[in-house]
Amino acid sequence: MPDKATNIHPTFHHLLQRSDKEAILQQNAICIWMTGLSGSGKSTIAQGLEKKLHEQGILTKILDGDNVRTGINKNLGFSEADRTENIRRIAEVNKLFLDAGIVTINSFVSPTKDIRDLAKSIIGEQDFYEVYINASFEECAKRDVKGLYKKAIAGEIKNFTGLDAPFEAPSDAALEIKTAEQNIEESIETIYAFFISKIKNLNS
After folding, report:
1. Which residues pair with 148 in a beta bridge?
2. pTM surpassing 0.90?
3. Which of 26, 85, 98, 169 qualifies as a cystine partner to 201, CB 3.0-4.6 A?
4. Tens of pLDDT, residues 120-147
């Protein structure tokens, strides 16, 4: 059987370019990649950031861990291999949105440097901005908004990030948000202020 890749004929060079889409939208497409422990506030901050950007006429798309796992990645579990494939697919989806001129706001634990580097390599270093939503395991366990920490500590959930699976905190994130020092509104404002000049088309 011939290699299936030989039957693939990409037509990217025939398509309208990303710059054409960005010109219509009057914005620069970037990927905002929020990483942090479960319960650190990523999803809430992402939702607030999207609303604030929407008020400025910026077209965005949130990609969230729970939502993605009910759709395109519903066949994946939480083994190391499945976590890697989860992020690989998400990164490819990011590329599609960026090519359409859309700002992507990602909310994924993405617990290791290797897995985040994989996303960055697919999306492109020039478009990938890592935001570390920094909340300690103890703080997240205290909040336990989904009841996951109680189950994990009781041994009902295995390979739980921060407990019996590693979380490698970013050392070179574009931005770090310490949620123990800022409330949600302040965190959203900090991220918005950091990114708005990178998104807004200065020629508009």
Report:
1. none
2. no
3. 26
4. 999 999 999 999 999 988 888 888 778 8
